[in-house]
Amino acid sequence: MQKSVLFASALALVGCSDRNFNKPELLFEPRILAMQSEPPQPIHGTSSTLRALVYFSDSGAGAKYKWSWCPLPVDSNDQCPIGQAEFDQIYTTLGLGTAPSLDLGNGETASFTNPFSAQWLLALCNGDVSISIGASGITASAVDGGSKSMFTCDLAADNKVPVYFPVTVSLVVTPSGLAELPAIFTLHLPIDEAIPGNTNPILDGIRVFDTDEWLDEAASVAIARQQRTNLDVRLAQSSSETLTRPRTGNKANRDLLTREKLNLWWLAEAGDFGHAGLGGYTTAYLPYSDPTVDAQFFSDAVSNVWTLPKPTS
Amino acid sequence: MTIFGTYQLPRNWQIGSRFRYVTGNPSTPVVSSVFNASKESYDPINGDKYSSRVGSFHQLDVRLDKRWIYNSWMLTAYVDLQNVYNRTNPESVEYNFNYKKTQLGSGLPIYPIMGIRGEF
Hints:
The complex is a heterodimer.
Chain A: E1 4-10, E2 26-27, E3 31-38, E4 47-55, E5 64-70, H1 84-94, E6 103-105, E7 110-113, H2 118-126, E8 132-133, E9 138-139, E10 154-155, E11 162-174, E12 181-190, E13 203-208, E14 228-235, E15 242-244, E16 257-259, E17 263-264, E18 268-269, E19 283-284, H3 294-297, E20 301-307
Parallel strand pairs in A: 2-18
Antiparallel strand pairs in A: 3-4, 4-7, 5-6, 5-11, 8-9, 10-11, 11-12, 13-14, 14-20, 15-16, 17-19
Chain B: E1 2-9, E2 13-22, E3 26-27, E4 30-36, E5 41-46, E6 52-53, E7 57-69, E8 74-82, E9 90-95, E10 102-106, E11 111-119
Antiparallel strand pairs in B: 1-2, 2-7, 3-6, 4-5, 7-8, 8-11, 9-10
């Protein structure tokens, strides 16, 4: 039998790449950064104000907005699978009267009114309603109870009861002379109106750590570039609400309460982060399983280490 | 396609070379994206399935061996130089966070290997 012993050494040459290639925390061009519904979960017959936080590299004057919503899960291209005509047909089939418009207008903000009663949403989620839309090829569950609903509803953590009915809000912002910026956002319409509605967190302020320098809209506080700066975000504990832990494969966690997780994103206009180790950090209140141990893990102010990028050379 | 050959030189030297050419794999391009504010990330919008192709792969490797033969074993020393002309072979297309910028994931650059092998 032949035996071989092999020793080898290799030298690899590593090339360079664009170090800011994938830095979402840098703002180089107009972008939609966030969307918000206030209140987040409107009950039947009530309205929410929809708004978007948009970064414009200029004043943003002349930007156009186009809002719409979709009662069905969007397709793989984030497009609504039905148009107004099909929605009218669904409404007629359900005997709900005149369907509201899927078009939410062209303002900087929009208003969405929840047109569905909790009972109807529950029926839709459970597949108790028969809908068939031939033109678009969409068919829904039958009343025989044997079919699965066409709607993807949010289930409670500890059982299979649907608690929220997701609808998709779409926004297209077109900055003057530039390409369209499309975005979507999911609204969770309550099916069980006995569950308290979620509320949006409210920041009480951002300051440079251990100083009285509070960041403001007028940008009166300058933070040095290429230097680590701790920032305090003041946020009331009540902004992070307790909820039942979402369903996971871990049964042991199913019935535990947890704290809503809040993500804080830090962004900077342009710049160059340089090599690894600099840059922005996302921060969150840590979710935990037992609200009674609140104080141990939770504080009113969360400190975030942030390094501003150097100017683009 | 692979072309290879070896040439025996005097005194147990051997030189070999291999050239490979492979057309690029079909790929589905991302043509645009939608910011999904609920997920805080961008959803890619794909173009037609397999409507584009990653660039082709070609590479030349050269290897030089020297063998010493003893009574009960052989020792071979070699220098293997892969990707001799330092071709940047694209292996995949990488997108940035909002799918607006792309860069090619590439294979190894010119890659020298030295080694010895004992056969008993």
